[in-house]
DNA sequence: CGGAAAATTGAGACTGATCAACCCCGGTGG
DNA sequence: CCACCGGGGTTGATCAGTCTCAATTTTCCG
């Protein structure tokens, strides 16, 4: 555990920036318990930040690096349920529980602040801090529900496109261009998250690359044709089937030709 | 909208029974805003109790009947995300949102109380009422996460067995024996909930029946062999494959022969 | 440099989706 | 009372998308 250095850029997305000295907030006339100066800790790739079932002692804003949330069902089924990046807060959704309901595992060397749970709960009582926190929580449950629907009714290619677009938009949210991203997670993690196998993910990435949607070398991913990816995401039919090697046309690949079928509810495996 | 009659048995599981006059609570020395006497309303089968995206004006404890929660993703994919029975509270998970994030649709004629959202929020501030409410909320997110893992990594038969066991235990929780249940939802709803097609659900139910796990006539379901169902749920291999008509042995069907493989994580499509 | 983990690629099997026909049952109106 | 009708449910045949198993390559790291 080290004393934190005021690393502004990485704090600028933090939920707690307004009340955290580390982020440069001025304590000013705040009452003592309203200002934070949390310690920060470093987790090595593969180490677990918090463990499912263990008491909730703190939450962990990700300063840099990244982590995955892993849920293990009573029967032993494991699944990645979320990816966390700088600005996200590990363990936040458990703030009102006795125990963490997922484990968080660092996917690379990752630095997080350590905000005691009492501080979180105290801040939740103050209306001005409550709202942003709730908004973050809601965004996460929204995301999880979208994932549920995706896994429940969309094809593999759609799900993967969804993830890539999501990662890109996260990337964008924290400044960098959304085009170039470094996947911190393994194919296995991606597969688990999407309810697929790692082979399928690998093949799909190759196919995306072969039709010019992306380029990928190991974990270096470039999104070449965001619109094309969106098309794949939105249209069940638009699963690119073209592993051929030749590149007769160098156009951005796959121009939207079909006016996007509204009401895909009919297409899915089952409706409501 | 009718004036509610004090129908104790149905109120006995209600989250609000301690503070609700309809449930027979004694207002006693409570401060005025702490006691409830909500109106109750009747929804016909198919009518929607609250709609996704609409402002949260109230929550709806189910008095009798049942409903499904339906989520519609931005792209139009629809999926049933939960089934609600007497004692459950429709819209409760949206208590801190501006808008409902799912729609609730009655699956049969259903009576719910109408608890204004302000009352809910007020009660959330009082520690003694906060806890049970949070517990309910957590139970739901736990359930939803289990569903996620189920859809993401379990086989169709396992998922269906899971649902049946879950319905049975819900049934039990509210008094009745868990053996006999009346499915309020259509095959389509079940399929949507489990991420399958209605045909698959139908076939699976037939197979379950053919191997003596259940009997089913229309929507009248009897669970003949709960242990067998659990085995199906827990063991990916134990998918009953035996549509044959003959019934050489009349034993409870499928005695557990294999010692349940621990760590099914290996078996699933992907691990964490 | 060597070994292990991660990723790719291929061939084949199998689950579950799709398409289609039929049935069952309750309701409606002649 | 019965014929018709429509929605929900069943069943069958077929097909496609993914999983599975296995071999190989690449990368990472000591």
TrEMBL record, chains A, B:
The record's SUPFAM superfamilies line, in alphabetical order, gives: cAMP-binding domain-like, Winged helix' DNA-binding domain
Gene3D superfamilies for this protein = Jelly Rolls (2.60.120.10), Winged helix-like DNA-binding domain superfamily/Winged helix DNA-binding domain (1.10.10.10)
Sorted alphabetically, which keywords does the UniProt record give?
Answer: DNA-binding, Transcription, Transcription regulation
Look up the domain of life of the source. Answer: Bacteria
Q: Among its keywords, does the record have Lipid biosynthesis?
A: no
Ranges where the record places region Disordered: 235-272
- Check the record and name the PROSITE patterns matching this protein: HTH_CRP_1 (PS00042), HTH_CRP_2 (PS51063)
Q: Please name the InterPro entries in this protein's record.
A: cNMP-bd_dom, cNMP-bd_dom_sf, Env_Response_Regulators, HTH_CRP, RmlC-like_jellyroll, Tscrpt_reg_HTH_Crp-type_CS, WH-like_DNA-bd_sf, WH_DNA-bd_sf
Span of domain HTH crp-type: 154-227
What name has this protein been given in UniProt? Crp/Fnr family transcriptional regulator
In its UniProt entry, the species of origin is given as Cupriavidus basilensis
């Amino acid at each position: 555990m080290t004393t934190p250095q005021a690393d502004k850029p990485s704090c600028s997305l933090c939920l707690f920036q307004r009340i955290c000295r580390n982020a440069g907030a001025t304590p000013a006339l705040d009452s003592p318990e309203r200002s934070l100066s949390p310690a920060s800790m470093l987790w090595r790739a593969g180490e677990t930040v918090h463990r499912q079932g263990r008491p909730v002692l703190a939450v962990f804003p990700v300063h840099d690096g990244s982590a995955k949330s892993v849920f293990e069902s009573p029967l032993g089924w494991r699944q990645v349920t979320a990816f966390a990046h700088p600005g996200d807060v590990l363990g936040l959704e458990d703030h009102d529980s006795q125990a963490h309901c997922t484990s968080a595992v660092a996917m690379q060397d990752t630095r997080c602040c350590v905000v005691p749970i009492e501080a979180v709960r105290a801040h939740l009582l103050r209306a001005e801090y409550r709202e942003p926190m709730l908004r973050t929580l809601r965004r996460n449950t929204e995301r999880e529900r979208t994932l549920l629907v995706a896994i429940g009714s969309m094809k593999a290619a759609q799900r993967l496109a969804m993830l890539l677009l999501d990662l890109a938009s996260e990337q964008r949210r924290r400044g960098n261009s959304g085009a170039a991203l470094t996947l911190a997670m393994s194919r296995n993690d991606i597969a688990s998250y999407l309810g697929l196998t790692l082979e399928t993910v690998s093949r799909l990435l190759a196919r995306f690359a072969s039709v010019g949607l992306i380029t990928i070398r190991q974990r270096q991913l470039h999104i070449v044709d965001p619109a094309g990816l969106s098309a794949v995401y939105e249209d069940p039919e638009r699963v690119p089937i073209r592993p051929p090697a030749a590149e007769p046309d160098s156009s951005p690949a796959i121009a939207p030709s079909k006016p996007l079928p509204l009401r895909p509810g009919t297409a899915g495996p089952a409706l409501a």
